[in-house]
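Final report, section 2: Outcomes. Of the targets proposed, Aldo/keto reductase is the one most frequently requested by collaborating groups, and we therefore present its record in full.
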Amino acid sequence: MRYCLFGRSGLRVSELCLGTMNFGNADWGIDDATSRAVMDAYAGAGGNFLDTAHIYGNGESERIVGEFIAADRDHFVVATKYTPSHGADIMRAGNSRRNMMRSVEESLSRLGTDYIDLFYLHMWDFTTPLDEVMRGFEDLVRSGKVLYVAASDMPAWQISRGNMLADLRGWSPFIGIQVEYSLAQRTPERDLLPMAAELDLGVVAWAPLAGGALAGGSGPRNRVRAARSSPRVQAIADLVRELAAENGLPGSQVALAALRQLGRHPNVLPIIGASSVDQLQANIGCLDVRLDDAQMARLETASQVDLGFPHEFLASPTIAQLVTGGNAHRFDNHRAPFGKGRA
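The predicted structure is given below as tokens.
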């Protein structure tokens, strides 16, 4: 695996992130031994970026990850998250400073470490003042318990507002975002990915296989595939399967390779999950796959989304002529807002 810098930071991460949501999950997850084997295989392939969360497996995922990294803590970049709770206690959920501080202490204990490399706000709650969140993150960074902060499942305008607050007040900004992004879910291209490019934020893509819908097959997460199923998604999945057959590849490799080639942001980092070592190795194989222009054009056409207002309006030839005083044909307004080598 190759490595890149994560957003506007010096944090070095591998080009595929390992998701651990299924570690220790009693409903559809994998046990300790299989989880360890998957992490061993991932690390053996050069992976160093592990993604977990306070809520995964009711804390079991963090425990399993913590036991694995104990032998070489400094080598791994551990990302975890706070916000939601499976319980019925309203005080144990949300974006508040109170829940943030409690969650960090519990995560540190389960992970068996003194610090968290990357700490996400997991889901925006629409109630907590943003300055409370950003100040809480700053205090955690100053304490050394958290090294970097990021945002997951949060509106673009709130993320950009949070980073403006951080810049103005000298606080730690978000260095990256985590979004649902796949051939079946390209709506982040409307605002989240352009914002990430402009602000130099790393982008981590969860559900890059649409819950397995783009990989085919069967397994314990069939209900997740069904939840993401629609005629449009099925058509995209059928095309992925067709291209996979043409290239003699697993569907997962085609879908992951295509996501990495879309080009809407440099070095989008897919989160790959696995229920076995064989499945993990198949997913890692996407790094050796390069789809040709004709194949990418077919996937682009099948999966494209309407960018909506104001993006479609501003991209129209009429508006282009108006904003250039009739000189659109003489003016190149395509900037390159992001640097090479960043995620």
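The mean pLDDT is 93.
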